[in-house]
């Protein structure tokens, strides 16, 4: 085995130990996710024995040390607030015991209907339908009010998805169709990583509810993995390329329909070898670890750290442009330009931002901040004392902790949306109390 495999395996074992120590906290989900991610891709590349990426031992060691440093920061917060994560699970189990709340059920279906209407409107008005279909111009042309509205609905839909998963057995076919549509949308809009998260939520929810059927659930999980690699992944990869080629001269809906139809036909007829498509994608794609290595090499060659500017850039992107003008570059491009790294499609992450700003110390400090933000989202949802919002906060906290490769702007946006929800709910309570008092006079 190559040195990358050995270093990755050692890092994997260290991270698994860290995860076990802080396993009761939602924030520790990040440690588990990145431990699998760090060791997973090198092993896949080794198995397929081909990759266009060459990495020095220096890059690999610095990447792994950065990830361990970040994970230690996460662990400190995870240990301090582990009871909040346990409370989240306990609350969900109590909801299962109490049975279906029809008010929350109606709200869940309403949210799902509204979010699909918003998705259809965005696709029709701006041509943004699936992952990679939006460019800088189409994204910038969206009305900010609409951006906030669809962001809030996407946040609420996570809670609705979790709630419907838990009561799938009682609600049956209508809920099953809703859950399936959300899983497919996760693949279309966010790629395989989002698809895996939504699938894991489904499997874990069924595991909690149906503990007597563990074998059946485990078999379903194994079959889902086989389905992902043999059918869904090659279908998604081929369809995305075909759609992007067509969208220049066809409408977004027409291009999507034709692209998916062509990909299904190719896969069904055998013109596309599923394993070849998957292997090519895995061996040629970069990952968050490689970007950290590039940053480390650049700084070692004499370039200076960005001293907080990278994180600040991410934060500004979550603030309305009417208050603070948007930067010319996203944080990924900002880091590349500042450190003299080629402007290519790299995978941004909190670890990369931390190392770019302050090195290993930045990774550790940003690990603490990252975990605090996730715990704060859970705290906000619990503070609202609303059962549905608590499902929203729990699902969002897990999703953020799971998202290894994500721009810090994702967390800043989630906090912004939770604060907006908190304000709206508070205003609703004030108006409701005032109206109740007036009607009783």
Could you give the topology of this structure?
Elements: H1 3-21, H2 29-48, H3 57-80, H4 82-98, H5 102-126, H6 136-140, H7 144-166, H8 168-171, H9 173-190, H10 192-209, H11 214-246, H12 252-269, H13 274-284, H14 288-300, H15 309-317, H16 331-339, H17 350-383, H18 387-402, H19 409-440
Write a concise keyword list for the protein shown above:
441 residues, mainly alpha, globular, single chain, 19 helices, 0% strand
Give a structural overview:
This protein is mainly alpha-helical. The protein has one domain (3-440). Helices cover 79% and strands 0% of the residues. Helix 2 packs antiparallel against helix 3 (57-80) and helix 14 crosses helix 17 (350-383). The chain is globular. The N and C termini lie far apart (80 Å). The mean pLDDT is 77.
Distance between the termini: 80 Å
Give the low-confidence spans: none
Q: Number of DSSP strands?
A: 0
* DSSP strand content: under 5%
Secondary-structure element order, N to C: HHHHHHHHHHHHHHHHHHH
Biggest sheet overview: none
Q: Given the structure, what is the number of helices?
A: 19
Structural class: mainly alpha
